[in-house]
Amino acid sequence: MGIKASLPVYAVEDVPGKGKGVIATRDIPKGTRIISEKPFVTGSHQVTSMEELQIRIHEQVCSLNESQQREFFSMHNIYPYTNSIERCLGIFRTNALPIGTDLDNGGVFLNACRVNHACDNNAQNFWNENINRLTIHAVRDIQEGEEITIYYLGSRRNRRARQEQLQKEFKFTCSCQLCSLPLDQSNDSDEKLDRIYKLDCIIELGGIPGLTSSPQRMLSYVDEQIRLWNEPTPDEVGLARAYPDAFQIAIANGDLARGRIFAERLLSLYSTTLGDDSPDVIQYSELARNPSAHQYYGMSMVWKTSLDEVPQRLRPKELEDWLWKRDNRIAQGQLADLRDRLTFPSFSDLPDEREMESKYFEYGDGISPRPVCHWCFLAEVPDIESSVRPRMTIKDADGMIVPFSFHIVHRGKELAKF
Q: How far apart, in whole angstroms, are the C-alpha atoms of residue 32 and residue 141?
C-alpha cells in the first residue's frame, strides 16, 4: 500500500479530444504513488480581491524561467482575456488544483495539471501537508497505455448533475466509460449515486448531535453507503469517505471494539489512496491502537465496549452483521431478543410515520406510509404520579428519562384497576 514509484510511470502525451493528458508507460498497481509534485504557481486565500489575485499570479509567472513559462502558457484557458495579466489568471483558474491544510488555496503543477478528469477516475489527487506536495495515487490497477485520470468535482452525483457542473465550471462534456453507459446501466448508476448523495445529506444534517441522538439509525445509513460503494466492485475513494462517519458514530457512543475495526479499515483505504506518509494514515494508525483518543469518545456510553470485545469465530457475513448492528429477522417461533434495537427501539429511535427515511415505513406512492416492520417500546417506570392527569417517569434502554402523561377522558380512573 502507498507504493512510491522510483522512476516515472507516465508520460504527458496528446490525447484525442482532450489536448494533453497523462498516459501510463507501464502497468501501475493500485496504491502506487504516480506523482509527487510541488506547485510552481500558487494562489492565496489571503488575497482580498480578484484584482489582487490577478497581480499575484502575473508576478509569479513573470519570475519563472523560459521553459516554465512556455509550459504555463501552453495550458488550457477557458476564460476570455485581453492582456497577459488576465491570461495568466485565466490559466490559473482553469488548471489549479486544491492545496493547503484546508484546501483553501490553489496551485498549478507542471505534470499533475495535465491529468484529465473522468467520472470513473483511476487515480486520486491529494495535498499532503506533511511533505508539502500534491500526490496522485492509483486507486485501482492501471494498465500500460491507459490514461491516468482524477475526479475534478467535490461530490459524486448522477450523470446529468455531473455533466452540468463540468460544463459550468470547466466548459467540457465528459465522455468517460461511466458517462457513456447504455441508458439502462446509466439509470442504475444514477440511482445508486443519488441514494449515496441523499444519505450523505441526511448524515451531514444530523451533525455532531446526530452521532448520539439516533446512533442506530445513523450507523444503518453508513452501512447502506458502504454496501453501495462496494457494488459492483469496491470504490476505494467512496469507501474512504464513508468509513469516517462509521468510526465517529461508534466512538461517540463508547464502542471501542467497532471503532478499532473501522479505524483499521480506514487505515488501509487511506494508505492506498493517500500514501503512508499522509496525515490521515498517521492519525488513524494511532486511532486503530487507541480509538478512545478521538475527541468524540465518550459523548455517550450506550454502546460501551472494550477493544477486545469482538465476537470470535464468526463467518465474514456474521462479522459484518455484528459490526453494523444489522437486524437479522427472527425466525418463526423463536423468542424475541429484548436487546434487539430495531424491534425494541430506544426513545430517540422511535419510528415516525412522517419521516421519509425509516425502516418501519415505506412510501409506495411517495406520500402515504405503509408499515413494513413491527416494533415495541419497552421502558422502566421508576415513578408514577397522579394529579390532574396520570403521569409517569419512564427510562428507556439508553437511560434517557422521559415524562409520559395519559390524556384520557376520565383522568386516569380507567387505569385504577391496573
A: 9
Assess contact for 97 and 69: CB atoms under 8 A. Answer: no
Which letter does DSSP use for residue 334 in this model? Answer: P
Q: Which single residue is written with the C-alpha cell 441526511?
A: 202
CB neighbours of 174 closer than 8 A, spacing ≥ 6? 117, 118, 119, 162, 163, 166
Single-letter residue type at 253: N
Q: CA–CA separation, 351 vs 361, rounded Å? A: 8
Three-state DSSP at 149 gives strand
Exposure class string for 32-61: b at 16+ Cβ within 10 A, else e: bbbbbbebbbbbeeeeeeeeebbebbbebb
Would you say 385 and 401 are in contact if contact means Cβ atoms under 8 Å apart?
no
Query: What is the band of 418 on the pLDDT scale with cuts at 50, 70, 90?
Result: very low
- Residues 129 and 109: their CA atoms lie apart, in Å, by 16
Do the beta carbons of residue 72 and residue 61 sit within 8 Å?
Answer: yes
Tens digit of pLDDT for each residue in 289-346?
Answer: 999 999 999 999 999 999 999 999 999 999 999 999 997 544 444 555 676 666 777 8
Cβ neighbourhood burial of 30 (10 Å; 0-12, 13-18, 19+): middle
Say how far residue 70 (Cα) sits from the centre of its chain: 39
Q: How far apart are CA 352 and CA 329, in angstroms?
A: 21
Number of H helices, E strands in the chain: 10, 15
Which helix (H) or strand (E) segment is 107 a member of? strand 105-108
Burial of 342: CB neighbours in 10 Å, binned 0-12, 13-18, 19+: buried
C-alpha cell read off for 123 = 487515480
Instruction: Locate all alpha helices (DSSP H) within 253-377, ordered by sequence.
Output: 256-273, 279-289, 316-323
CB 148 within 8 A of CB 142: yes
